[in-house]
Amino acid sequence: MYLKYFDLEEPPFSLTPDPQYLFMSGRHREGLAHLLYGVQQPGGFVQLTGEIGSGKTTLCRCLIRQLPPDTDIALILNPRLTVTELLAAVCDELRIPYPEKTASVKVLVDALNGRLLESHALRRRTVLIIDEAQNLDGDVLEQVRLLTNLETAREKLLQIILIGQPELLRILGSRRLRQLSQRITARYHLEPLSRRETYAYVRHRLLVAGRREPLFTRWALRSVYARSRGVPRVINIICDRALLGAYAQDRKKIGAGIVRRASRETRGQVPLRARFRPALAAGIVLALLLVAAGAWLFSPAARSRNGGQAPAAARRTPGPTVPPPADASSPVPAGGGTAMSLEAALAGAGNTDAASFTALYRLWGAEIPVASPDSGCREGGREGFACLFLNGNWSKLRRYNLPVILELVMPGGGRHRVTLVELAEGSALLDIGGRRREVPLDEIDRLWDGAFILPWKPPFPVRILSAGMRGEDVGWIRNTLDRLEGGTPSPGDPLLFDGDLEQRIMAFQKRKGLIPDGMAGSETLARLLLDLDRGPALRR
Question: Is pTM beyond 0.90 here?
Answer without folding.
Answer: no
